[in-house]
């Protein structure tokens, strides 16, 4: 678990990952990354992010990303927190991670709780070395004072979550309901200009009351996925009848899709603009990071961007 913006999180995090990979060459490694605010926390955050991501792509099997901007909006708009602290942000991230990592009955666990959820998560979602970026969303999310007065149904939760996936909306508020899967040729566009978000693989995790009655067929639609992987291979679901964190019913989707294409493209673009004018490069070269190292990292991430852009 690491940040990609600051020097310690990104530098030490990448180094520790390298050490782990050396010691455990055949083990699955997942990195959980906190993506910096777009408006900026550190002047060189885009450099740090480019260098870190390019290195992790060589070392890690899956890279699970939380964007600070998205988590901040969840705190503000869904949880109605007026003065948002790091504790509030961390609580949302912990809730979402917990909804994945709590024990569950998985595809391969044959009626008992899985002993290897991280391994199964990687197997389900990161089936190709060019596609390692995972995003996630959880519903419902609301102030704890509202939970007692709310009722949830599986059809409504899953309808919202499916539309969040295909329209690349990170939270329940502001879903673009106009985006539809492409019928035949071309990509579907919503009224707001949002385009259809193609998935490589999705993992749906359901927890709570009547979980075995939940109908997940909407996520098995081949139109949601790339043409070279069958939807039977691309979609997995885990379930647990135990409610999670006071919610009678909750659903989490971990997705390997085009969802992170825009933030990655923005970050690489900003870093390249700084690099083109050689801004702050001396801060790196004096510690042995050459301009060639930067260029190698840019090349690596441009390949990742190209692969996700052409996912169809």
Automatic annotation (TrEMBL):
Residues 1-75 form the Tubulin/FtsZ GTPase domain. It holds the Pfam family Tubulin. One of its GO terms (biological process) is cell projection organization. Signal peptide: none annotated. Its main location: other. GO terms for molecular function: GTP binding; structural constituent of cytoskeleton. This is Tubulin delta chain.
